């Protein structure tokens, strides 16, 4: 019982770390990248900075002996890096080419995409309660975030690439941890350097295509530099907690409960940046939160049902073994049964 409590506290800590660091990262990036802030409009390159600091911390941790890293084959790291970088670039291009409304819809479509991929790749089935709660969450987040919806061919293609690659990346994180029996931080410390190098090489070109601005011409003021360092620091906790959550739960759970960050961002945007928060937004957030609660309950019910099924199966197996042993003993001749008895 005490062990179960520790696991629950640890799970909640991982989720809290992800929500707090992600929301903090979004707020810091909003100040850093907005026209009213420091105007640093190089999102892909900034992600390269994020993974550079994450990789450095992972290297120092391994060098000091604080963590021992199990090796993942280089070709696995390379193809994972390609998928992850396509996810980042696709998201940035989708945001540039599509309306904000369609961009939000594409993000919501990751939930069914992850469910379908887990069903195809891992033969994972979902109960009706889980499916209904996922629909409620997606609908609630859609109500409070989706406004105008405009679609064009290039934007639609970029959104499809982004959704597919992001879903595949998140599923692969969990698969790698199980396949190589590797911890979340150890895996991150190996994937981060590969992503950092590739994003720092190609990121400035991608950003120039996105906004026609050169990183070399940007004026790195003291305030901008401090916010870049803050963004990088928060990203380390965000990346670690993401790998932790996917390893502990699943890519689907990470997507569903991850929309709590969307709710927090909307509330903080209203508090800190005077964003408009209409009745529709509030109702959508409440519906999304209800969906998340129902989803958590449904997943827990599935776990309890599977545990009860395993216990019942083990008990039936033990009873069958005892019955076979009894039949075997009864079938032995009486002389064999008396063998070894001491005479009085």
Automatic annotation (TrEMBL):
Major location category of this protein: membrane
Stretches assigned to the Sugar phosphate transporter domain: 22-296
InterPro entries: EmrE-like, Sugar_P_trans_dom, TPT_transporter
Gene Ontology CC: one annotated term: membrane
Domain of life, source organism: Eukaryota
Membrane topology, from the record: Multi-pass membrane protein
Location in the cell: Membrane
Keyword tRNA-binding: no
UniProt keyword annotation of Transmembrane present: yes
SUPFAM superfamilies in UniProt: Multidrug resistance efflux transporter EmrE
Ranges that cross the membrane: 12-28, 40-60, 80-105, 126-147, 153-173, 218-240, 252-273, 279-298
Keywords in alphabetical order: Membrane, Transmembrane, Transmembrane helix
Classification via PANTHER family: SOLUTE CARRIER FAMILY 35
Name of the protein: UDP-rhamnose/UDP-galactose transporter 2
Lineage: Eukaryota, Viridiplantae, Streptophyta, Embryophyta, Tracheophyta
